[in-house]
């Protein structure tokens, strides 16, 4: 028996598992869609075809009460500085 590697596009949860997860948390399709940045129709589709590991991880984040990420201007500034090779503040103080 050989082990096959899982591709990123492989389904991690079945559609039925997605629906059971949503219903067990008392979420409507529009509510889950809002959390995931999707339409209710997309959520309904997930409940038919299943989801990949990335979406399953988003479900886990919702379970833990994590809010969707909102990047600040300082986040963008730091990323730009790193991309341009600017040292971190800690490195300047050494």
TrEMBL record:
Residues 18-47 form the HTH cro/C1-type domain. It comes from the Bacteria. PROSITE patterns: HTH_CROC1. This is Transcriptional regulator with XRE-family HTH domain.
């Amino acid at each position: 028996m050989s082990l096959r590697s899982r591709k990123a596009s492989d389904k991690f949860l079945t559609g039925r598992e997605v629906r059971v997860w949503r219903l067990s948390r008392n979420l409507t399709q529009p509510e889950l869609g809002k959390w995931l940045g999707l339409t209710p129709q997309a959520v309904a589709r997930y409940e038919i075809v299943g989801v990949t590991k990335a979406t399953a991880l988003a479900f886990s984040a919702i379970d833990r009460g994590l809010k969707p990420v909102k990047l600040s201007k300082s986040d963008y500034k730091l990323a730009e500085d790193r991309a341009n090779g600017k040292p971190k503040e800690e490195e300047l103080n050494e």
